[in-house]
Amino acid sequence: MLEKTQGIVLRTLKYNDESVIVDIYTANNGSQGFIVRLPRSRKSPVRSILLRPLSILNLEYDYRPHRSLQFLRNMQVAEPYHSLPYEPMKEAVGLFLSEFLYYALKNEERNPPLFQYLKNGLLWFDEAQRAVANFHLVFLIRLTRFLGFWPDIDPQAGPSRQGAARVRHPGVFDLREGVMSDVVPLHSAWLSPEESALAPLLLRMDFHTMHLFRLNREQRRRILDVLTEYYRLHVPEFPELKSLDILREVVGGS
Known about the structure:
Layout: E1 2-14, E2 19-26, E3 30-37, E4 56-62, E5 70-77, H1 88-104, H2 112-127, H3 135-147, E6 172-174, E7 179-181, H4 193-196, H5 199-203, H6 217-234, H7 244-250
Parallel strand pairs: 3-5
Antiparallel strand pairs: 1-2, 1-4, 2-3, 4-5, 6-7
């Protein structure tokens, strides 16, 4: 069946001298793998420059639901970027997000609101001209809503567990359960009361207000570490990310 849709490039791997395998999150069919032949002719409708991480493309391909790799017929840039691939800081964030999204969306099926969120967020980042050091944090926090594990910060949400130690504070955030709890969990994946108290503040951040949150380098690193741990607990087979150390170095203080 001929399919026409938009997609966001997440990863490209060399298959042989003439072909690559490309993982794309598509608007119509969710995560899809493609085998893409790269002709040497500049006039070809399929060119490697279009397969940069996070490129937003118009796609035309033969869709076979039970095929592990789809065959791409044609692709064109749907939304050209003006700064994301060219400014060093934005490029580093983009490479990190493409790797992060590859694993976070690996088994995601068709989800139009999710696709629209990804597309709108990336275009906003591309157009933003200042105060974007918190973008990747906001982007990943708000992505959890579409993936089904948005943090529940209601202190009453966490169940009391038999044998758990009672605590005299508003609560601790249980990363494994994704809820605020008034008892210390029996496992180790939870935040201190002090860090848990910041959760409601962070969840209020969005793209338009994030410049008001003045975070230094260490705070930003800690939030990113917590977020990656949170995803690792909720997304099957979510690995250590190769681009994480690079991002930590590039994105500095506010």
